[in-house]
């Protein structure tokens, strides 16, 4: 594909007629696909959403295949639903772009037909991870990390090696590999390419050059002839084809822009586009993201490093596992009365639980939750879930105490991860942006500020990934000038929290205690006395 086709648009918003111009983002998450329509001021106008389920292959433990045929139908369904809800003609959509969960990959044959795909946490390749780790006297994974910022656990190479071993029929046919976001763009435009932010999570892309490193595939015994062209986020890939228009309801000829990885586009939508800026994204997983002034990796290999969607910039990203899922488990397992009461009162159950937890002293009477560990990317596993240091005094140990302890623990793990990033990068956050579902809780926001000891800003648009993707579409179509300028100009702030110095001191001790207790709990897993909450493939 001719790289000259990928030209960054430079027109300004003044060139667009704002009242009848809109942008569409396709947001392919782990559990659902969304088509979201925004006006040029960044306000969400309409959305279509459908859940999707990834397929476990019989007799293939850890497999999570992505149903290409069905999921394209769901994407088209969402596009039509969003257009219907917005009550606008398809001709009003100035451009469309796609973003997706990272790590998920799609393979195509020589005819350009998608032939196989897997979702982000497909873990079938545990044996291949172990085999690759043995290359170069057990130095191959470090070589991959220092080049790409990724370890082998969820990278593409073990999965490709698994196909070579177990599905050679598919591996032999494979002519091109992309990410899931790129597959959506391809289905719309017929153009195959990847962007650095998402392709960077394959472990096959060079952080410094933002291009493929074929030598890594050569060392792994894999073919390097399937690497597709690389185009930066916000470049124009092509236009909606007649075939895609008939399937989706979009107008043929609508510009299709290059999107990217969901987290990186989420930070764009939050205006986190300058070196040193920091965000905590609170969803099912919590990501702590720090913009680095230049690509640099962690000598201890604790933290993953990804290309940002902003050219030349990298992001240190740490992950807290199952934070949102843990809160949902606690609500559903122990808070049936509160769920009924919240329905009668017409309020959210989490809001009711936060009101109760606000009456619990800072530190939650010393209760220590054991769920996600801080991030250790090279040896990534967690202790068995539990609560430590409970009291049998019902006035001290009750639902509100445990709920507050969980919120405090999520903030403590985030603070530990930010400390790990600061240790190798020298970038220590002076404030942070808190977004995602977790940021809806006012108590949680204050706890995060108190634990980290820095101001916490909460945006009006908390689910910013789709907005960032729409910005990419707008830049590709010439509606906006640059990604960074547009991200900063469209973000609006709902509120800001200041840290309480006395509470911060309490939480410093709480953090130290938690680190010591968690280390002991990992020892129980090591001795096979308890079961890890999650363990990376190859461990």
UniProtKB/TrEMBL annotation:
Keyword Transcription regulation attributed: no
Reactions this protein catalyses: (S)-4,5-dihydroxypentane-2,3-dione + ATP = (2S)-2-hydroxy-3,4-dioxopentyl phosphate + ADP + H(+)
Domain of life: Bacteria
InterPro entries: AI-2_kinase, ATPase_NBD, Carb_kinase_FGGY, FGGY_C, FGGY_Carb_Kinase, FGGY_N
Matching Pfam families: FGGY_C, FGGY_N
Principal location listed in the UniProt entry: cytoplasm
GO terms of molecular function: autoinducer-2 kinase activity
Known EC number: 2.7.1.189
GO BP terms in the entry: carbohydrate metabolic process; quorum sensing
Function in brief: Catalyzes the phosphorylation of autoinducer-2 (AI-2) to phospho-AI-2, which subsequently inactivates the transcriptional regulator LsrR and leads to the transcription of the lsr operon. Phosphorylates the ring-open form of (S)-4,5-dihydroxypentane-2,3-dione (DPD), which is the precursor to all AI-2 signaling molecules, at the C5 position.
Protein name: Autoinducer-2 kinase
Natural source organism: Ewingella americana (strain ATCC 33852 / DSM 4580 / CCUG 14506 / JCM 5911 / LMG 7869 / NCTC 12157 / CDC 1468-78)
Gene name of the record: lsrK
